Amino acid sequence: MKILVLGYSGAGKSTFAKKLQLHYEIPLLYLDTIHFEANWVERSDENMENDMKRFMSHNESWIIEGNYRKVCKDRYDLADQIFIFKRQRLVCLYGVVKRRIKHHKTPRESIATGCKEKLDLSFLLWVLFTGRTRKRRAYFDLIEKKYSNKVKIFKYKHQIKRYLKDIK
C-alpha cells in the first residue's frame, strides 16, 4: 500500500498519517523532515527529491505526508490512496496553536531535527492566507480530478474520525 497525505498546514495531516502508520505498520516519511535542516534552513529540491526516491524505492509500502508539489511528481501515480485535507482556515489556525502548545518543550517527529516548534506572524499568515492561494487550491483540485478513483477529501473532523474507525 502506498499512501499520500496532502493538505493545508494545521489541518491534521501528520496526526492522520501517524495513525495510518500505526494501523498498517508501514514506513512513514514526513516531508518537512527532509525539506529542512536544523533551524529551519531549507534544503534544495534536488536533495529532497533524492531522499524521497530513496525512501520510495527502499519500501514496498509507504506513507508520505506533506505537499511540496514540485518534488518527486511520480509519487502521485505510484500512490494507491491520496488523502487531501481541505479544512477551514480557523480550524487550521486552531491546529497550529494547539500543536505549538503541545510541543513547546518537546520536538515532534514530523519536523526536522534541530527545528524548534514556532508560531510567528509569518507562519500564522501562511496558515490563514499565503498557504491558501488560488494556485494551491488549483493544485489540490487537479490532484482530485486527475486521481479521482483514489482520492479522499477531508473537510471536517467527523469525516476523519469515521474513516479511521472504518479501517479498524
Fold blueprint:
Elements: E1 2-7, H1 13-24, E2 28-30, H2 32-35, E3 36-37, E4 41-42, H3 45-58, E5 62-65, H4 74-78, E6 81-85, H5 89-102, H6 121-128, H7 134-146, E7 151-154, H8 157-167
Parallel strand pairs: 1-5, 1-6, 2-5, 6-7
Antiparallel strand pairs: 3-4
Describe this structure in words.
Helix content is 48%, strand content 15%. The chain is α/β, with parallel strands linked by helices and 168 residues long. It has a 5-stranded parallel β-sheet with strand order 2-5-1-6-7, with helices on both faces. It has a two-stranded antiparallel ribbon with strand order 3-4. The longest helix has 14 residues, at 45-58. 26% of the residues are buried. The model has no long low-confidence stretch (mean pLDDT 94).
Q: Helix and strand string, N-terminal first?
A: EHEHEEHEHEHHHEH
General form: globular
Q: How many structural domains does the protein architecture include?
A: 1
Alpha-beta content class: alpha/beta
Point out poorly predicted stretches: none
Q: What's the level 1 CATH class?
A: Alpha Beta
The CATH H-level homologous superfamily: P-loop containing nucleotide triphosphate hydrolases
The number of distinct helices, counting runs of at least 4 residues, comes to 8
> How much is the radius of gyration in Å?
15 Å
Residue share in helix: 40-55%
Describe the strand arrangement of the main beta sheet, using strand numbers. 2-5-1-6-7
CATH topology: Rossmann fold
CATH architecture: 3-Layer(aba) Sandwich
Strand content: 15-25%
Main pleated-sheet profile? 5 strands, parallel
